[in-house]
Amino acid sequence: MLVILGYLIVLASVFGGFALAGGHLSALLQPIELLMIGGAAAGAFLVGNTGKAIKATLKSLPSVLKGTKYSKAVYMDLMALLYDILAKVRKEGLMTIEDDVENPAQSPVFARYPRVVADHHVLEFMTDYLRLMVGGNLNAFEIENLMDNEIGTHHQEGELPIHSIAKLGDAMPAFGIVAAVMGVVHTMASVGLPPAELGLLIAHALVGTFLGILLAYGFVGPLASLLEQKLGESTKMLECIKVTLLASLNGYSPALAVEFGRKVLYSSERPSFLELERHVKQKK
Fold first, then answer.
1. pTM, 2 dp
2. What span, in angstroms and rounded, lies between the C-alpha atoms of 284 and 281?
3. Residue 187 and residue 204: Cα distance in Å, rounded?
4. CA nearest 153: which of 117, 118, 128, 116?
5. In the chain, which stretches have pLDDT less than 50?
């Protein structure tokens, strides 16, 4: 919703200001210029990216129209779930969570936290390392190294659409110049026309430069920034799980382990100690 609102503000500011200054909006309506800029950008996007990057970029675009799903309530559910699992381990033993980890969809513990279970990346990350804790002989240092590698891979994959869109945005002004130069070429080839008509052709050519810059900095570039922020939020969930599980492996109680996880959250979503404690008790 904010993306649409932002685009409307950009359009209203630029075209509204142009109209208030006495400009004729009809002069900016140049579909041929848009065709040249858009077509060149699409072609360059296909040339400059692998099939994997193209697929990831197209898949990520619908997410920009949605608000963040990583709210304070989701983080609180995540930490309450971790507390429940670690408390069960501490009370009944590590092997008692084996069924929960192998079949989280049928687990009564996971069933209390549908918002966490709905995120398959988070659920897979959590259950994979709980499974290693149950059946593996890895120590805390080995698991931490494995977690860091997986989080790094997650971040690299998430950066594919960000880099693709950012590079596309950087190229838009150049494609605008290409369209403008083509318009100038057309104007120079029409030097026999009256001055009024030549002036109109030059104005049409300059629209190409204008559109390239507007699309780059008003539309395409901000999408890369938004996707980068969303990637940071998704990574923070994994970091919270990592810190909490490692604290548990190092011998801390469930309450203290969850406190470790709470401390890595962004301050805007981080619940207070008492808020989290009340939430955990309500979920029991």
1. 0.84
2. 5
3. 9
4. 128
5. none
